[in-house]
Amino acid sequence: LNVVTLDEAGKILQNLVKPVKRTELITMGKAVGRVLTADLCSQADVPSFDRAMVDGLAVRGADTFGASDTLPAMLHLAGKVKMGETPDFRLCPGECALVPTGGALPAGADAMVMIEYTENPGDKLWLVQRSVSPGDHIIKRGDDFAAGQVVLPAGRQIRAADIGTLAALAANQILVFEQPRESGRASC
């Protein structure tokens, strides 16, 4: 057993490990444990549209104020939005749209009413039995990340929890520092 001073131990470590200066481009699947060389910024708003958090009716919140089981708000169905579709219509006062969870809200809508609090007595008439406020049950465009926002900073070691973030940013390949390698064995 050889005892060395702190300075001597530091010199031994410097001889074993050389500073990492080179970078490499890797796929997202190999990113865990690697260190980012530069800030990773969002190139676009995520989500890129106002998104429904529940199945139900997209509405203008003001059209539902005071709605209850005994005095429902009566709204006219302006259209239906299918998953993955961008609505090609706009809600006007007194109108609603059927939207699935995760679907895009049409322009003019600012809230969602859960389908459980609605009734369709026929054709395009819908009754809303609960009031909602603007922003209820929706995720606004850019709520997760705004375009240009630093999402993962340079020098961050990527964790398993960061992989979903990389996927949301469509960062299929990222620039990381090469992994340190032992330069040789020290003689003690």
What does this entry look like structurally?
The protein is mostly beta strands and 188 residues long. It is 9% helix and 26% strand. The protein contains two helices and twelve strands; from the N terminus they run H-E-E-E-E-E-E-E-E-E-E-E-H-E. The strands form four sheets. Strands 7-4-6-5-9-8 form a six-stranded mixed sheet, with no helix packed on it. It has a two-stranded antiparallel sheet with strand order 1-12. Strand 8 (118-122) and strand 9 form a beta hairpin. The longest helix has 11 residues, at 6-16. The protein is elongated and about 85 Å long. The N and C termini lie close together (9 Å). The model has no long low-confidence stretch (mean pLDDT 91).
Distance between the termini: 9 Å
**What is the chain-wise order of helices and strands?**
HEEEEEEEEEEEHE
Strand content: 25-35%
Number of strands: 12
Assign the structural class, choosing from mainly alpha, mainly beta, alpha/beta, alpha+beta, or little secondary structure: mainly beta
Shape: elongated
pLDDT below 50 for ≥5 consecutive residues: which ranges? none
What is the number of helices? 2
Helix content: under 10%
Strand order of the largest sheet: 7-4-6-5-9-8
From the structure above, extract its key features:
188 residues; single chain; 12 strands; 6-stranded mixed β-sheet; two-stranded antiparallel sheet; mainly beta
In a few lines, what is going on in this structure?
The chain is mainly beta.
SSE layout and pairing:
Blueprint: H1 6-16, E1 23-27, E2 40-41, E3 51-52, E4 56-59, E5 73-80, E6 95-99, E7 111-114, E8 118-122, E9 125-128, E10 138-139, E11 150-152, H2 163-168, E12 173-177
Parallel strand pairs: 5-6
Antiparallel strand pairs: 1-12, 2-11, 3-10, 4-6, 4-7, 5-9, 8-9
